[in-house]
Structure formats: structure tokens, C-alpha cells
Amino acid sequence: MTTTGTSSFNLELSDLIEEAFERCGQEIRSGYDFRTARRSLNLLTIEWANRGINLWTIEQGTINLVQGVNTYDLPVSTIDLLEHQIRTNAGQQNNQTDITISRISVSTYSTIPNKLAQGRPIQVWIQRMTGAQYPVGAGPNGTNTTTNIDNPKITVWPTPDQGTEASPYYQFVYWRMRRINDAGNAVNTQDIPYRFLNCMVAGLAYYLSLKLPNIDPQRVMGLKADYEQQFQFAADEDREKAPIRFIPRQMFIGS
Q1: pLDDT class for 133, splitting at 50, 70, 90?
Q2: Taking the CB of residue 86, how many other CB atoms lie within 10 A of it?
Q3: DSSP codes, 186-250
Q4: H or E segment to which residue 172 belongs
Q5: 2 lies in a domain?
Q6: Whole-model pTM?
Q7: How far is residue 48 from each of residues 177, 224, 232, measured CA to CA in Å?
């Protein structure tokens, strides 16, 4: 007897939904069953984003900073930023330096007297926004464009004192947590590592049990318990495994 020699198992959306229905003790019988399951699956991935950091959704990005401009759009799928630095000499491959930049709140930013003062940015205010699209003139600023997209944004301070988009001196370097891709159609696989497949099926089965008729309440509670257990298994594995060292900061107060 020999093994297959492969380790590529995955579930297309149709198979994933079918498995979830079977855990509810039911079968897919109509196109509406598929649509309602896909809708629940998209809501499930939003719940995962609210539960914490999903390591596979962390991506690095850069923004070229322009002299006199302090606010920049982030990709619309950005949930939040985890790390950020200012890179100086951004156009020189052999002479770049990354310098930590502090994140501040809207309250702190609002107290800065001169928000247009120029220099090397040392602070950033992150505006998380909704990422929603609005019709012409209906956005939060009432701008007159074809579509207004409420992108997440960063505002740096001081405002950059040099550089252009084509020839930057400063770059804002960040690691962001993005949204999980939408469920898609019947032949799509999901934007998750294989380790989360069982968790996704369990979660979808629980979500469906809240909507499908004639589901025993005891079964609903069992599906919920299984989902929570499977999520805990997957989340415990999907974590940073590098060692962490804490160094106390000494402060001296003069007499």
C-alpha cells in the first residue's frame, strides 16, 4: 500500500456549502439555498476579521510621500495597519533607512497647532473609514465624481518637506491586515489556508442552522459548540511563533 504523494486537498465553494448543509441534516434543493449560504459565508469571514489578526491576510505596502501632502489613501480592502515606518532616501537602493513612526489618535492629531509644518514625518493618524462606494455627490465629502470610495487613509505629521510621486525621498512603509476575499462562485476556492477549512465549514453550518427551517435547537447549539472549538484549534495554530523578549524601560525623575 502506498500513499497518494499529494497534499492539495481543498473545497470548491459548492462542495463547502454542500458539506455545511449536510452537517445541518439537510440538502441543497434550490438556487436560493446556494445564494443564502454564500451570503452567510461572506458574513462569516467578516466575523473572523473582528475576532483578531488572521496571519494570511497580512500584506506589506508602500506609499510614496509628496512634499506638502499629508493625507494618502490606503487600499480599500484595508482593515487596519499593524506596523509602519518612514523610509528615507527611498530612491536609493543602497542608502535606505527605515525609522519607526508613532501612531496617534484623532484627539492627539487635533491638538497639533500647525498641521502643515514640514519635516520628516514622525507620527501617523490612521483613519479606518468604511471602504463603501457612494453615488455621485453622495459621499461623506459630497465630491462631484462618478463614484466616491470611502478609502481608509493615513495622515502623517509633519507634512513631508521633500520628494515627489515619481522621485520620492520618503516612503511610508506598512504592513496591513486586509479583508478576506469574497466567497465567489461555485468553482472558487476560498481565501483561507487549508488549516481553516474545517473551521469554515463548521461556521457556515452554524450560520445556516440559524436560518433553515425545522432545525432542532439542540443541534444548533451543537453546531455552535463545534464551530467555536474548530475556530480555537485553527486560531491557536495561526499565530506568530517567533520568540518575544520584553525589556523594561527605566525612567528617572529628578528631585
Answers
A1: confident
A2: 22
A3: TTPBPSS-GGGHHHHHHHHHHHHHTTSTT--HHHHHHHHHHHHHHHHHHHHHSS--S-----PPP
A4: strand 170-178
A5: no
A6: 0.85
A7: 12, 15, 12
Average pLDDT over residues 235-243: 85
Q: Mean pLDDT of all residues in the chain?
A: 91
Domain end point (choices 143, 158, 178) = 178
Q: What are the CA-CA distances from residue 100 to residues 65, 85, 126, 170, 223 (Å)?
A: 16, 5, 15, 13, 45
Closest to 230 measured CA to CA, from 34, 80, 40, 23:
23
Strands (E), 44-129: 58-64, 71-73, 78-88, 97-100, 102-104, 118-119, 123-127
The answer to whether residues 43 and 127 belong to one domain is no
Tens digit of pLDDT for each residue in 44-72? 999 999 998 899 999 999 999 999 999 99
* Number of other CB atoms surrounding residue 29 within 10 Å: 9
What is the tally of structural domains in the chain?
2
Q: Are residues 156 and 215 in the same domain?
A: no
